[in-house]
Design a protein that fits this description.
Blueprint: H1 6-19, H2 24-31, E1 35-40, E2 43-48, H3 51-60, H4 62-72, E3 78-83, E4 92-95, E5 106-108, E6 128-130, H5 151-162, E7 172-175, H6 182-196, E8 202-206, H7 207-219, H8 223-230, E9 235-239, H9 247-262, E10 266-271, H10 283-289, E11 293-296, H11 302-316, H12 322-331, H13 336-353, H14 359-369, H15 379-390, H16 394-397, H17 404-420, H18 426-431, H19 438-454, H20 456-471
Parallel strand pairs: 2-3, 7-10, 7-11, 8-9, 9-10
Antiparallel strand pairs: 1-2, 3-4, 5-6
Helix pairs in contact: 1-4, 5-6, 7-8, 11-12, 11-13, 12-14, 13-14, 15-17, 17-19, 19-20
């Protein structure tokens, strides 16, 4: 039942505890603006100014908030954030990390020794063991944006979630560069399996953690317990398996792999490179990595990048102009992680300065966080390449002619200058393109983005020119 007034007293009690455990400036900035909304069935709803508050609170004060809520409300306390309504829109509710997460049933573990390890994985002497799946509630298929870069991985993952261990995709070997969604996809499969098969034992571990726990078990002479633990798992997810270097731990994993695979259990492995390129790995282990399906996650294209930004804004109730999102998607190309980092940084800057998000603000943010190194291309070089590609004269490109071919070439030229030349302002591009103003350049860039999503031939033109200019860097 909901108590219409108790939530205020409860939150004030929480604030007193929190205030005594953080710096005064932290309290004034991050907790004083929060307003208590309701308390129903141990779920406390707090109104925050922006969704960035949710992200910042969860990243920096999660332990303190969680302990405080459980102390004041009880062990079943949960938290939800309500983002304050913006521009006439309704408020948005976001579950706090203290909310429900996947859990595993207890398992029986026949241990060899009655004393030894204090590790979290191996507990010698215990008959019952509760295994934390270690899955993030944020990593689900519903929060993934599908594109050509990850389509096969998502479709395969959903098929595995329906019949774990019973498809030809066992093991599933996911590989790709940093920030392309390997962890998200692997954990999304784990979460989907837990939803469909709650009794299944799912466990997520990194290659480094596996190696460390193996060394710990060996030093404490509880290796049998270590192996017994992993052989109880129904779905084993090993992230960044390339870090599992070393003869001993690979032999242990070989035994675990064989046992689980033989018994129809699902294995999901991620790596920053294909299995054939893994160094210092036993050949017998590499051959098993190739038994199932290998899926590569690639860098997202422009449309996928833009969809990812729009999806995150929708989920978290962010109000950011479309032209700003297009600008970010246009300039942050490497991976999803940098895209999300750019969005969070933009919201942080907007929150602290009390200014609306704009392209100028985004440009300042991206100059600091985008890791891609762009070439020393010049506007003149870009224009020259565009003119040669479309067989037009330089004077015609920068003229005021409204012929369709010239207009499109001119717009593509401005788009490429904005996209490929670092610290090149809209005003400078416009000045060197026949004296256009910055709003005309911005409109041209947005038009190019829109046409790339609807006109396949136009998209080919832009990609060809990008390839030519990229090759000129070297």
């Amino acid at each position: 039942m909901q108590d219409t007034s108790r939530h205020i007293d409860v939150w004030e009690d929480c604030l007193r505890i929190i205030q005594n455990n953080i710096l005064p400036q932290q309290y004034e900035t991050w907790f004083k603006p929060i307003r208590s909304v309701s308390l129903c069935d141990d779920v406390l709803v707090l109104e925050v100014p922006t969704s960035f508050y949710c992200t910042y609170l969860e990243q920096n004060f999660l332990d303190l908030i969680s302990r405080t809520l459980k102390r004041v409300i009880g062990p079943n306390a949960k938290l939800r954030y309500m983002v304050a309504p913006v521009q006439g829109q309704s408020s948005v509710l976001i579950d706090g990390a203290a909310g429900p997460v996947a859990t595993n049933k207890s398992i029986s573990l026949n241990t060899v020794k009655a004393a030894g390890s204090n590790g979290t994985m191996v507990l010698p002497g215990l008959k019952k063991l509760q295994i934390d799946p270690r899955l993030s509630p944020d990593y689900r298929f519903s929060t993934m944006v599908e594109g050509e870069c990850n389509k096969i991985g998502i479709l395969t993952g959903k098929e595995i979630a329906l019949k774990p261990g019973q498809t030809p995709f066992n093991p599933l070997f996911i590989f790709g560069g940093c920030g392309l969604g390997k962890t998200h996809l692997s954990q999304a499969i784990g979460n989907a399996i837990k939803e469909k098969y709650p009794e299944s034992i799912v466990f997520y571990v990194t290659g480094t953690e596996f190696k460390t726990k193996y060394m710990d078990a060996t030093q404490k002479n509880v290796l049998t317990d270590f192996l017994s633990f992993f052989m109880k798992i129904d779905v084993l997810i090993v992230d960044d398996i390339q870090d599992m270097r070393g003869q001993g731990n690979q032999s242990a994993f070989f035994s675990i792999f064989n046992h689980l695979h033989l018994n129809g259990k699902q294995l999901i492995l991620t790596s920053d490179r294909p299995a054939k390129e893994l160094e210092n790995f036993e050949e017998r282990l590499l051959s098993r990595f190739k038994w199932g399906l290998s899926v590569e996650l690639k860098a997202p294209d422009y449309n996928t990048r833009l969809s990812m930004l729009q999806s995150k804004c929708h989920r978290e109730g962010l109000i950011i102009p479309d032209e700003v999102l297009r600008y970010i998607a246009m300039n942050v190309k490497s991976n999803f992680r940098e895209l999300e980092g750019a969005l969070v940084s933009l919201m942080a800057y907007s929150t602290f300065t009390h200014e609306d998000c704009s392209i100028e603000m985004a440009a300042k943010i991206l100059d600091k966080i985008v890791s891609e190194q762009k070439s020393d291309l010049t506007i003149e070089k870009v224009q020259s390449v565009v003119c040669e590609y479309f067989h037009i004269a330089q004077d015609d490109l920068v003229s005021h002619s409204r012929k369709r071919q010239l207009v499109q070439a001119r717009q593509i030229s401005m788009f490429l200058c904005r996209n490929l030349i670092p610290n090149c302002s809209l005003s400078v591009i416009g000045a060197k393109t026949g004296g256009k103003d910055h709003s005309t350049v911005l409109h041209s860039c947005n038009t190019v983005c829109d046409l790339m999503s609807t006109d396949r031939m136009f998209k080919t033109y832009v990609q060809d020119l990008e390839g030519i200019l990229q090759a000129d860097r070297h």
